[in-house]
Amino acid sequence: MKEKRRYREAGSAQLDDDTVRIMQEIRDECTKYTADCIYNMDETGYYWKMKLDRSLSTFEESGRKKDKARVTVSLCCNSTGTDRLPL
Predict the structure, then answer these.
(1) Measured torsion, CA atoms of residues 75, 76, 77, 78, in degrees rounded to the nearest 10
(2) How many helices (H) and strands (E) does the chain have?
(3) pLDDT (tens digit, 9 = 90+) per residue, 16-52?
(4) How many Å apart are CA 73 and CA 45, to the nearest integer?
């Protein structure tokens, strides 16, 4: 009996000179504001119908299309953490 991976997805971030330049421009722009005025927003999600992509099996099984029903939540607050927006 072995652990088998049914399917996988891969992603990668592209870091080139243009990306580095843009990030530096954003950092330079942020120096004009106080920490109370700089906000960060991120989202997170939970795929509540997706099955595990690993299982214990004695035979190979091909992957199936994933059910991507998702619940998404946005999180946002300022740099000091004094102003947190509701979820």
Answers:
(1) 140
(2) 1, 4
(3) 888 889 999 999 998 999 989 989 999 998 888 877 6
(4) 6
